[in-house]
């Protein structure tokens, strides 16, 4: 008989026939529940639940109530704390190399003051020449074997002072100047470097003494947060050319006079007094007691050609990005700015410092 010809219809044929599609037993003779999925898995002799939890070797009892419990590691003859009390412990044992390995470095960030910890060198032909002419103490001069005209001149000055000179390969100079370069390239040593004992910072009183010796009104540059050593070197170079008597830098948030700064100054650091103070605000107060007026470089200040920069002046230059800090700005007697006519409203810190220094020089 065809499936659709049963007068009982689709539902009755499927559920009430003596020979059903479920193996010949109707759901009326044997209820659905006795052979249901749930009953089979939970109520039969081999159900899923009882087999794992109520049988002779259940999962749970095997681990926690059998003759060999799970806590064997904690209470039997060979406890888990073997690693801490046995011969191979961290404190007593010396046989386990795992505990003798050095601890990994957790902080891989570069140290911003790492350059100060390197041996101080003067690199570049002009910088080394000025270091020799200024009479600075020099431990040794390293130079390439192939000498050209300007290098012969510098080496001649070094021999006149009986300085120690060593000829080395250019690769050796590249290696020594690598920390002072950028982009994976070494610093531009130009074939010669001088190893010196280190930078010699002075005191504020030494800068004021220079002004007295020259019989001039003190003109001092104060740097508030200039962190680029190349900017620092450029400012020192401009200060030397503009007739300033010294530069004051803070110990924190500021570049120090390193080889990069010395190279950028083209040797001017050998003639310029540089003082390093722990508190820039305290240095400003001391300069005020000495009779100096403190002018801060700020875009909101008076135009430099209208400001009075005559006499004893301390010029404050701010950082590359933020300018002068709020506390230092409040200590300034007045603010001075550079007139701008282009679409860019700011200058590099070293360039702005040079412009203001020469305006002060022009006014006298």
How do the helices and strands line up, and which of them pair or pack?
Layout: H1 9-16, H2 37-42, H3 48-53, H4 59-64, H5 72-75, H6 82-85, E1 121-123, H7 125-133, E2 140-144, H8 149-160, E3 165-168, H9 170-177, E4 192-195, H10 204-214, E5 219-224, H11 229-242, E6 246-250, H12 259-264, E7 274-277, H13 280-289, E8 293-303, E9 313-318, H14 326-331, E10 334-337, H15 349-363
Parallel strand pairs: 2-3, 5-6, 5-9, 6-7, 8-9, 8-10
Antiparallel strand pairs: 1-4, 2-4
Helix pairs in contact: 7-8, 11-15
Structural account:
The chain has 364 residues and is α/β, with parallel strands linked by helices. Among the domains are: 115-195, Ribosomal protein L30/S12 (60s Ribosomal Protein L30, Chain: A); 204-363, SPOUT methyltransferase, trefoil knot domain (Alpha/beta knot, 3-Layer(aba) Sandwich). Helices cover 34% and strands 14% of the residues. It is built from 15 helices and ten strands. The protein has helices at residues 9-16, 37-42, 48-53, 59-64, 72-75, 82-85, 125-133, 149-160, 170-177, 204-214, 229-242, 259-264, 280-289, 326-331, 349-363; strands spanning 121-123, 140-144, 165-168, 192-195, 219-224, 246-250, 274-277, 293-303, 313-318, 334-337. The strands form two sheets. A six-stranded parallel β-sheet has the order 7-6-5-9-8-10, with helices on both faces. Strands 1-4-2-3 form a four-stranded mixed β-sheet. Helix 7 runs parallel beside helix 8.
**CATH class term of the domain at 204-363:** Alpha Beta
Structural class: alpha/beta
- Under the CATH scheme, which architecture of the domain at 204-363 would be assigned? 3-Layer(aba) Sandwich
User: How many DSSP-defined strands?
Assistant: 10
CATH topology of the domain at 204-363, what is it called? Alpha/beta knot
Give a quick account of the main beta sheet: strands, pairing sense, barrel closure: 6 strands, parallel
Shape: globular
If helices are DSSP runs of H or I spanning 4 or more residues, what is the number of helices? 15
Q: Spatial order of the strands in the main sheet?
A: 7-6-5-9-8-10
Helical proportion, percent range: 25-40%
Mean pLDDT: 76
Low-pLDDT regions: 1-9, 17-22, 24-55, 60-66, 69-76, 78-118
The fraction of residues assigned to DSSP E strands is 5-15%
**CATH homologous superfamily of the domain at 204-363, by name?**
SPOUT methyltransferase, trefoil knot domain
Report how far apart the termini are: 123 Å
The ordered string of helix (H) and strand (E) elements is HHHHHHEHEHEHEHEHEHEHEEHEH
Q: Return Rg in Å.
A: 42 Å
């Amino acid at each position: 008989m065809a499936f659709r010809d049963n007068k009982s219809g689709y539902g009755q044929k499927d559920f009430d026939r003596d020979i059903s599609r479920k193996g010949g037993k109707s759901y009326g003779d044997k209820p659905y529940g006795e052979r249901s999925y749930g009953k089979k898995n939970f109520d039969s002799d081999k159900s899923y639940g009882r087999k794992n939890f109520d049988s002779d070797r259940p999962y749970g009892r095997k681990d926690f109530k059998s003759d060999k419990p799970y806590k064997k590691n904690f209470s039997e003859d060979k406890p888990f704390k073997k690693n801490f009390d046995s011969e191979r412990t961290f404190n007593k044992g010396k046989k386990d190399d795992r505990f003798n390995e050095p601890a990994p470095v957790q902080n891989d960030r570069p140290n911003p003051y790492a350059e100060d910890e390197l041996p101080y060198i003067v690199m570049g032909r002009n910088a080394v020449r000025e270091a020799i002419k200024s009479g600075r103490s020099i431990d040794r001069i390293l130079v390439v074997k192939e000498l050209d005209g300007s290098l012969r001149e510098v080496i001649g000055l070094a021999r006149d002072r009986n300085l120690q000179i060593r000829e080395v390969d250019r690769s050796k100079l590249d290696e020594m100047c690598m920390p002072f370069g950028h982009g994976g390239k070494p610093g531009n040593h130009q074939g010669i470097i001088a190893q010196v004992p280190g930078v010699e910072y002075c005191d504020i009183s030494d800068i004021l003494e220079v002004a007295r010796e020259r019989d001039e009104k003190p003109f001092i540059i104060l740097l508030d947060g200039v962190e680029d050593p190349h900017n620092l070197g450029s400012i020192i170079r401009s200060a030397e050319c503009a007739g300033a008597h010294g530069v004051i830098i803070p110990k924190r948030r500021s570049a120090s006079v390193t080889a990069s700064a010395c190279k950028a100054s083209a040797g001017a650091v050998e003639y310029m007094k540089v003082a390093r103070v722990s508190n820039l605000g305290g240095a400003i107060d001391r300069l005020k007691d000495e009779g100096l007026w403190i002018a801060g470089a700020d875009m909101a200040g008076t135009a430099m050609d209208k400001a009075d920069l005559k006499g004893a002046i301390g010029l404050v230059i701010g950082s590359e990005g933020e300018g002068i800090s709020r506390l230092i700005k409040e200590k300034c007697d007045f603010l001075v700015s550079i007139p701008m006519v282009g679409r860019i409203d700011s200058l590099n810190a070293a360039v702005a410092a040079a412009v203001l220094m020469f305006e002060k020089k022009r006014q006298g």
